Amino acid sequence: MNQDFKMTATTLKGLEGVLADELLKLGAKDIKESIRSVSFRGDKGFLYKANIALRTAIRILKPIKTCKIYDEEDLYEAIQKIKWEKYLDVNGTFAIGAVVNSKNFTSNSHYISLKSKDAIADYFRHKYSKRPNVDLKYPDVKIHVHIQKDWCTISLDSSGESLHKRGYRSATNIAPINEVLAAGLVLLSGYTGDENFIDPMCGSGTILIEAAMIANHIPANINRKHFAFENWKDYDEDLYFIIQDSLLKKIKSSHFKIMGFDKAPSAVRKAKQNIINANLEEFIGVHHVNFFNSTKEVFGNTTILFNPPYGERLNIDVEEFYRKIGDTLKHNYPNSTAWIITSDMGALKHVGLRTSKRIPLKNADLDCRFVKYELYEGSRKIKKVINDQKE
C-alpha cells in the first residue's frame, strides 16, 4: 500500500489560494499555503493525479531531505548524505535547479546549482568510481534545491518541464498569456461552465482553452507527452493509467457557449489551431470580430474575461482604448460579468465602470490587477428596485 508523503506545488504569486482550493477538491491532505507555493500530503497515485489535473500548479516537488545549513560547505555535506542510488543510476543523467533566499549565501542560484551538482557527482565517484552526467534538457532525474534563510529543502521535481506547458499551444502571438495564469483567472472569476463565456480579445486562444477544460472537467495536462516521474525508479505505469482513467471518467459536456473574438485574422487562425491541438473544437467558437463593433448575441448570464493589450503591446491611445472597452461593455453586454487583467493601473480609470472586485496578480514580472465589472440591463438602482418588488 502506498504511504502518504509531503509534496509542494509551486505557483504564480497571487494564485496560492486558488491552488490550495484545487488541491482540497482533488483530495490532498494537510494543505498549507506559502508564498508562490502550497504544501500538502498524498501518496504516489496522488502525485500522478496532481501533475495531470492541477490547473494552477507550475511543478510538483517531492522533498527528500530538509535540514539547516549556514554556508556552501553545509550544503555540500547535506547533499552528500543522501543515498542518491535510490533515485539515480550511475549511468543516468540529472539536472539541478536552485532557488536561494538567504543572507547566509552571497552566491547566486547558478553557483548553488553547481555546488549541488559537484556534491552528487562526488558521491557517485567515491562510491562507484563513476558518476552520472548532467543533461539540462532531458535529464532522467531533475533535482530542486530551495534555500530559505537557514533551511534547505532538496526535492525531486516530478513534473520536469513546467506544467504550464500543456502540450496544445503550437501557435502564439506576441507576449501570450501563461496557461497557468489563464486558468487561474478563469477560476478566480468563479466560472464553472454553467453560463456563457466570451474572451473578446482572444489572441492565440489560451484563456478560451483553459475555460473550456474547466467547463468540461478535462484535466489540465491530459495533452502532455511526458512527466519527469515517468523516469523514476519507483514509477508505477499501471497505477498511472488507473489515475488517468479515473480523471477521464469525470469529463462532462457543458452546453453553454464559449466564444472568442479577435480583430486580427492571424490571431484567429492561431487560436483555431491551438483549439484543434487541444481537441476542443466542438466546444469553442472563434470569430474574426472587432470587439468594439460587437454586441451580446447569447441569452442569459455571461462571463466576459480578457487580457487586453497593454504596456509594450499597446501603441495606440490608452485613454481612448480603455474608454471604448467600458462603453462597449456598458452598452452592448447587459446581464454579464466582465473581468479584465492589466498592468496599466492608470488605464483602468478610463473604463468608466465601477469595479466590484480588484485582485493583485503577477503576469511574468509585471504587477497587475484583475478587476471585475457587473453589467446590468439598465442601472444598478433599477435592478435593485426590480429585485425588491419580487421579494
UniProtKB/TrEMBL annotation:
Q: Which GO terms describe its molecular function?
A: methyltransferase activity
Mind listing the UniProt keywords for this protein, alphabetically? Methyltransferase, RNA-binding, Transferase
Q: By its UniProt entry, which Pfam families does this protein fall under?
A: RlmL_1st, THUMP, UPF0020
Task: Look up the record and give one Gene Ontology term from the biological process aspect.
Answer: methylation
Annotated ranges, domain THUMP: 46-158
Name of the protein in question: Class I SAM-dependent RNA methyltransferase
- Per its UniProt record, what PROSITE patterns does this chain match? THUMP, UPF0020
Q: From what superkingdom does this record's organism come?
A: Bacteria
Q: According to the entry, what is the taxonomic lineage of the organism?
A: Bacteria, Pseudomonadati, Bacteroidota, Flavobacteriia, Flavobacteriales
